[in-house]
Amino acid sequence: MVNRNLIRGLDLNEQDWEQELNAALDGADPAQIEWGGEGIGLNEIVEGKILRIEGDHVLVDVGYKSEGMIPLNEWDEEEERPLPGQMVKVLIEDIEDIQAGMDDASMVALSKRKAEKIEAWRDVISKVHEGDVVTGVATRKIKGGLLVDIGVNVFLPASQVDIRRPPDIGDYIGRTIQCMVLKIDEARRNIVVSRRALIESERAEKREKLLRELEVGQLRKGVVKNIAEFGAFVDLGGIDGLLHITDMAWHRVGHPSEVVAIDEEIEVKILHIDREKEKIALGLKQKSASPWDDVESKYPVGSRIKGTVVNVMSYGAFVKLEEGIEGLVHISEMSWTKRISHPNELVHSDDEIEVVVLGINKEKQEISLGMKQTQDNPWDKVAERYPTGTHVTGVVRNLTNYGAFIEIEEGIDGLLHVSDMSWTRKISHPSEMVEKGQKIECSVISVDQQRRRIALGLKQMNEDPWATDIPSKYQPGQVVIGEVTKLTNFGVFVGLENGLEGLLHISELADHKVDNPEDVVKVGDKIEVKVLRVDQDERKIGLSRKRVEWSEDDLGEEEGGATVASGSPGQNVSTGELRGGTGSAKGPLFKAPGAEE
Prior knowledge:
Helices cover 12% and strands 39% of the residues. The protein is mainly beta. A hairpin with a 4-residue loop joins strand 24 and strand 25 (453-457). It starts with a helix and ends in a 6-residue tail after the last strand.
């Protein structure tokens, strides 16, 4: 049966088709043609006898009172020349009366070619039915499709030429093709055919048969019909299967066209069949054993091998060990010491490099590789090269709030903590002592080889003044001159020398009660103070301004009530508020007698 929905969807222009039909009939109107009957009349097909040839015309006796004439050129070159006595079917095109003296004469115009075409139409329409398969030659391209000669010209719409509409239907001209008859209009004497419908019908039969025969694991030959980014569609002979890009080869495939080409015949393996949805998954690489089957024996962990870099990403480089096996060298496994921003600083595609196998995940088909493992780890001998107390020279690479990182050799840094920058100064930020890019000499304090850390010291380059110089230079009761460096709500810090500061508690500022140190002194003022106490363990010096003029007896009485203050360095015990100045300090050394412990 003919699919009527298919007919409704044809790109057929009725007016264009009728024009083509008229051209096929050489202008004869099918509706006015007499398809049999008695007598002679216009548009009637009759059989006549060839009498003779005169010039460019053939004279034929059609049983009329006068002879008929057919143009000689209606016999094709490949046909035999007309001979007197032969019978020929002709179409009576015109009868024109001519006055010739006393007798009436008529001239009869005949057409052999039109008679043959009309006879052919009559023969085809009597034999061909909708749904029949016909064979013919595509003769020419018209608007909307092709004309196909099956004995008569029939219309093949462009959308019905193939399952997938070809780029140029003109390529079919001259080809013998088979089509299914979709529509016959006897009134207009036209026929519409479809090659696509026939192909789909044949494919449906083949598909049903093929689905019954197919089994997972079978090897089948097919033809590549289409290629997409994700794979290729392969015609197995009635049904298409999908050959996914990941199933084309064991090695990495950038695009399916690298492996297969359209119209190429290939042998594939059936991986999966969904008979309900008529979907088939195919494989090409599965025809051979996976190189991952014995990967652990070929590339044991710890083995050193050579490979080729095939891809460089921001996080590492993929290295091909053999066809189908690639491993990843992570950026962290490229160098023991170099700080690498991108792997292309060390490797590029097509580079041959030596790597060490770090790990294998056979299930995920992943191999972890290392480049730095092919070289000695410099950290293994850091403790040996830089024992405690060694003086090293390096460059300040980076500053943080807590210290400076010093590069003592390529890739090996040491940390110079702010607490190890000065014996006497209270360093708030390393920028007070060093700057980025500066070359300095430090002493190695400690080496943690396991955690890859080196502690450096700047102050350790000299002896600790608190152990010798400061206690001997500043004695209790001694009057010295210092400069106010900062103000707090609990007192004043006074610079004595080279970053050495003492604390002048608010209770020691004046004989009267002081609520705000700023009422008495300003930052930068030079003031005379008396040393009350030097604490070597806490590295603090307690000072007094009001006691400068006191006697030894007065000083002894007051000292009985003085105690060491608690709290964070450089902060008020209660609020921690700084009221002026720069830098930091260790906090108050003393607090007023009777203050809360």
